[in-house]
Design brief:
The chain has helices at 20-28, 42-48, 65-70, 89-95, 107-122, 125-133, 159-170, 195-201, 221-226, 244-252, 296-316, 349-359, 388-396; strands at 2-3, 11-14, 32-35, 52-57, 76-79, 98-100, 151-155, 174-178, 190-191, 204-207, 231-235, 256-261, 285-287, 337-344, 364-372, 375-382, 400-406. With 415 residues, the chain is an alpha/beta fold. Helix 1 runs parallel beside helix 11 (296-316) and helix 5 (107-122) crosses helix 7. The protein is elongated, with a radius of gyration of 25 Å. Catalyzes the reversible oxidation of 3-phospho-D-glycerate to 3-phosphonooxypyruvate, the first step of the phosphorylated L-serine biosynthesis pathway. Also catalyzes the reversible oxidation of 2-hydroxyglutarate to 2-oxoglutarate.
Length: 415
């Protein structure tokens, strides 16, 4: 249980070269911001987080229970990317640490990269350009194809998969897709009843699944064996999804005509670190350093979006689009005080909170609440500041995870 009151100004730490617009936005909102160009190991990051309320990371920083236990001032983590599997979400939730990400901001960038790679692999451009650099003129149509009329199989039909579906149809591809969730088809795309069905009909297979533990090892020998002769394989989702050694075997055997891989089971921690993979040196294989969402446009949008969510949470209690806490989208405060209360999701909590307010003669002029799993969240705007004795009684309730109060002048909008 915490009644938190971060220092003024609250401190934020941004790692991994997050776009400068994030730091600018947080400073404008009144935060003291430090930036760091790379990820940090657990011990280094624990030291760096002392006194830090907001942490911004990308995919190479791991947030563990040990780190969360040591970072007692930490209130929120912003993943300036799509994935959040680098954060122990269950532990963060139990401690009341909010986690935000950018589920939509870089979808177009990933889609454009995948479309470009599909064209390049179909025309065998990696081989052509390599020979030109070696001084070899190989003007031949052997193995080169148009993508028009071919079938793209999309595995994972979420934000990226659906946008890829739309763009792919626009350039003449037929689209089939498979997703474990019941998602509506876009355009003329056809839903497949199973992954196996998709693999048997697709000329190109593109993975767009998330990083949940159940997806580890999703694509291995059995799946590659089902793919069509001379098919193309693309993975711009998660490195742990694919068996890279088996993929290598299918490229070398000639079963697959090419592959484009942007994510790897083990990735270097910092710019310039050595990169090792069994896929290096293979014919008609494109390897990129996890840059699917790394365009200036996407990174700027991500920086703006996630920093706004972080600032809105700490400065006003807004949890809209949090990936782990109950989502409450808050309007401007309607009274003289705002009380945000995160608690265990058990019966009777709301009645108890309102009873304490009523006993103290405090009128609630606006109230917003939601639950998520084992956690509940209620935000109350009151007509005058809540007495310290009432807050103390709330803190003492066994269901309390944390409690925070603001005056209207303290509450800022997300920008």
């Amino acid at each position: 249980m915490i009644h938190f009151a971060p220092p003024e100004p609250a401190k934020a730490l941004l790692l991994e070269n997050i776009h400068q617009v994030a730091a600018e936005g947080l400073r404008k909102a009144g935060f003291e911001v430090d930036t760091h160009p790379r990820s940090m190991g657990e011990d280094e990051l624990i030291d760096a987080l002392q006194g830090v309320a907001l942490l911004g990371i990308r995919s190479n920083t791991t947030i563990t229970p040990r780190l969360l236990d040591a970072a007692r001032d930490l209130r929120a983590v912003g993943c300036f990317c799509i994935g959040t599997n680098q954060v122990d979400l269950a532990d963060a939730t139990s401690r009341g640490v909010a986690v935000f990400n950018a589920p939509f901001s870089n979808t177009r960038s990933v889609v454009e990269l995948v479309i470009g790679e599909i064209v390049a692999l179909a025309r065998r451009l990696p081989d052509k350009t390599q020979k030109m650099h070696e001084g070899i003129w190989d003007k031949s149509a052997a193995g080169s194809h148009e993508i028009r009329g071919r079938t793209l199989g999309i595995v994972g039909y979420g934000n990226i998969g659906t946008q890829l579906s739309t763009v792919a149809e626009a350039v003449g591809l037929h689209v089939v897709f498979f997703d474990t969730a019941d998602r509506p088809a876009h355009g003329n795309a056809r839903r497949m009843g199973s992954l196996e069905e998709l693999l048997r009909v697709a000329d190109i297979v593109s993975l767009h699944v998330d990083g949940r533990p159940g997806n580890a090892g999703l694509f291995g020998a059995a799946q590659f064996d089902l793919m069509k002769q001379d098919a193309v394989f693309v993975n711009a989702s998660r490195g742990m999804v694919v068996d890279d050694v088996t993929l290598r075997e299918h490229i070398l055997s000639g079963h697959l005509s090419g592959a484009a891989i942007d994510v790897f089971p083990v990735e270097p921690k910092a710019q310039g670190d050595p990169f090792e993979s069994p896929l290096r040196g293979l014919p008609n294989v494109i390897l990129t350093p996890h840059v699917g969402g790394s365009t200036q446009e996407a990174q700027e949008e991500i920086g703006h979006f996630v920093s706004g969510k972080l600032a809105g949470f700490l400065a006003g209690g807004n949890t809209a689009l949090s990936v782990n806490l109950p989502q409450v989208a808050l309007p401007h405060p309607q009274g003289a005080s705002r009380v945000a209360y995160l608690h265990a999701n058990v019966p009777g909590v709301l009645a108890g909170v309102n009873g304490l307010f009523a006993d103290a003669g405090t009128n609630i002029v606006g109230q917003y609440l939601a639950t998520r799993g084992e956690v509940g969240y209620v935000v109350s705007d009151t007509d005058h500041p809540v007495e310290e004795s009432v807050l103390a009684r709330l803190e003492q309730l066994p269901e309390t995870i944390w409690l925070h109060t603001w005056r209207p002048r303290q509450v800022i909008d997300e920008t």
